[in-house]
Amino acid sequence: MLLGLKSEFRKLLTIRSTYGIVAAALLIGAFVAIDSVHIDSKAALQAPDLLANASTNTIVFIGFLLAFPGLLLMGNEYRYNTIMYTLTSSNSRLKTLLAKVITVSVFAVVTSLVASLLAPLCMILGAHLLGVGIGHQVFNYWSIIWRCAFTGWGYSIYGLILAIILRSQIGSIVTFLLVPLVGENLLMGLLRYDGKYLPFTALQSVARPAGLGSPTTSGHEAVVVLAYTAVGLIVSTILFVSRDAN
Amino acid sequence: MIVAKQLVKRYQKKTAVDDLSFTIETGKVTGFLGPNGAGKSTTMRLMLGLDHGGGITTFDGKRLNEYARPSQVVGILLEAKSFHPTRTARQHLRILADAGGIDAKRVDEALDAVGLINAAKSHPGKFSLGMSQRLGIAAAILGKPRYLILDEPANGLDPEGIAWLREFLKSYADQGNAALVSSHLLSEMAQMADNVVVIGKGKLIADTSIEALIAGNGHSEVLVRSPKKLEMERVLRHHKAAVTKTAEGMKVSGLTTDEIGKLAFENGLPLYELSRHTASLEEVFLELTAGSEEFAANKGQK
Fold it and tell me: Does A14 contact B95 at a Cβ distance shorter than 8 Å?
């Protein structure tokens, strides 16, 4: 298991796209944070949860990028047929899959936390550059940390599950982009209030601060996401273990 | 010893591998032969547990997944271009070394062994087919495994590379290891392999040594050239030999060169040529697999 983890981390850290994804996530997060100072009214800048919201809003913006390490870690295996080495290096497909889940999870959580820390710092920098003041801030650290980490993790696991099920890098990326953008938006029109139970909508609602359109608490939405993730992981595990490796 | 027992693989209505059993002996290189679509690659994948199907394969009495570190038991090369194109060759092998619990210093040793040490920092996406094969062989030998399963390893190799592969496999087997090697280069296989497993349409056709295969299936003939053709033919037929006339002389079966030489001497018949012609592995292979080709070309059509 430890050997598998070591190998999976090396796979993740030896492709350029990993660094591209991290750089894009941090840059977009920083830009959104700085730009929001410019857009927000002076009254809004005095809100006590301004910086806390900067963290969680950033994750909503960059979350979809965090699915790509999961999509690529598994998608590359099939695209370049390295799956045969991966599977013949281990004596258990379950261990192999678990190593991938842990690798993707750790990567997503760390990147999410770095981005969510960077966002308020960028906002402070933006305010300083514009010469405007920010009001006294109140932080519920635990709430911010778990919502940001959970959202990033959720996206990465969604990506990994899709790649395992579809076994096609391009197919899983296209599906990943289409489901939240087109599929869920169409379903939202039909389901209205119940649309909050859709996987990507629920995931975004975990990070979205209360009062910004979320009809339920982050905890409720996290349970919905966990249910999707559990079902997805069970299905993908069964397929990964039982299907031919091609 | 690798023992494959009753391997079966079915794709809906098609049976790709049909109750296939054979043994790979240690200390020997075993050639794995069959026409295109015979099921060689599928058999290899079944043996390694990459594909699911019937039957079992044991390596020294244990299934591959019963070993803690399978890549130190079997090294594989199933496709030449199985690597991420933008990782370096060294990174590719480091990943495999990590996964297999193999010492990192083996990476450069393996690259050196296949002549790629100077390309260690290169991206294999730019490698030729021959270089890709060498990287694949480096990956296979990385864990110093007892067994090698190589699918068409000579594809794309230059003559020097093929000669290296032949010598490498022979010395590898001489150290008490074993290799199962599929190839379409039959003349090369005849030089490289000790034993041969021949399959057609997923079924076993032969599992024996190359010598036994040729002796048991090939037609050994003697080429005879004499200025007194008619007399020679009459003498040979009188001694129950089968004679086939050719433009230059005659092909004789049923008598050895010694026997024919003695008959010619006793009858005062001069000989210009008396040579034994043994069937090649290619001739035997074509004879054995006739009718079991999945994708046979239409002979005579251009």
Answer: yes
